[in-house]
Amino acid sequence: MAFRASVLTLYPEMFPGHLGFSLAGKAMERGQWSLDTVQIRDFATDRHRTVDDTPAGGGAGMVLKADVLARAIDSASENDTRPRLLMSPRGQPLTQERVRELAASDGVIIVCGRFEGVDQRVIEARGLEEVSIGDYVLSGGEPAALTVLDAIVRILPGVMGNDLSGLHESFEGGLLEHPHYTRPQEWEGREIPAILTSGNHGAIEKWRHQEAVQLTQERRPDLLEKG
After folding, report:
1. Segment holding 37, helix H or strand E
2. Per the annotation, does 134 bind a ligand?
3. Annotation-wise, does 74 bind a ligand?
4. Apex CA 108: angle with CA 104 and CA 114, to 5°?
5. How far apart are CA 172 and CA 137, in angstroms?
6. pLDDT tens track of the chain, all 227 residues?
7. What distance in Å separates the CA atoms of residue 69 and residue 180, rounded to the nearest whole number?
C-alpha cells in the first residue's frame, strides 16, 4: 500500500512545494506515495469563513477555532488510523527514529497551525501529536510539514536509488555522519585521506566510525549521552 499523506492547511497552494521535484517527485509519479490537502477554511460555517478568534483570557494574536479544525480533521480521517500530527514549536522534537516509525505506517495526517496557536481542546479531543522541527518559531506549520514529509518520503522503500544510503546518515546509530570525499584526488592542496583510496574496506569502515564519533563529540555530545 502506498504511503498517503493528508495535510490540513489554510494555504494548500504551498503543497507539494519542493516535494514535487527530485526523488520525492519521481516517487509520487510512480505512485509510491500520495499527498492531498484539506482547506481548513472550507469547514467554517459563517459567511466570512472565519477560522480564528481572540484568545480566551486576553492576549495578543488569534487562535485557530476548535470546532472548525475538528470538522476538517474528521473529514480527512474518518475510519482512518494514520498518526495525526500538529506542527508546533512546543511539540516533541522530531527525531530520525520517529521519522522511521512514521515511514513504516500507512501514512500521516498533518495539521498546519497558524496565528497564535490552536485551541487546546481540539488537540486533546482529536489526539493530535505535537511535533517540532526545531527551537524556533515559523509563521505557520506549512514549512515544517514539508520538512517532515521530506524526511519520511526519502526513506520509503524504493525511493532512494540505493536503500543502504539511509543507513549511514546523521542520526542513524546515534551519531552524526562521517565526512565525505570524491574526485579529484587533490583540490587546492587538500588531499582525500589516503585510507579512503586504500581498498581496505575494514579499515575504511573503522575510520568512518571514528570520524563520526569525533564529529558527534564536538558538535552534538547530547547524542552520545542518549546512547
Report:
1. strand 33-39
2. yes
3. no
4. 145
5. 26
6. 799 999 999 999 999 999 999 999 999 999 999 999 999 999 999 999 999 999 999 999 999 999 999 999 999 988 899 999 999 999 999 999 999 999 999 999 999 999 889 999 999 999 999 999 999 999 999 999 999 999 999 999 999 875 555 555 666 778 999 999 999 999 999 999 999 999 999 999 999 999 999 999 999 999 898 76
7. 45
Was 138 annotated as part of a binding site? yes
Number of residues in the chain: 227
Among 153, 171, 7, 4, residue whose Cα is nearest residue 87: 7
Q: Is 133 annotated to bind ligand? A: yes
Q: Cell triple for residue 194?
A: 589516503
137 is in an annotated binding site: yes
Sign of CA dihedral 17, 18, 23, 26: positive
For the question of whether the overall pTM of this predicted structure is more than 0.85, the answer is: yes
Query: Contact, 95 vs 171, CB < 8 A?
Result: yes
| Annotated binding-site residue? 192 | no
Contact 110, 148 (CB under 8 A): yes
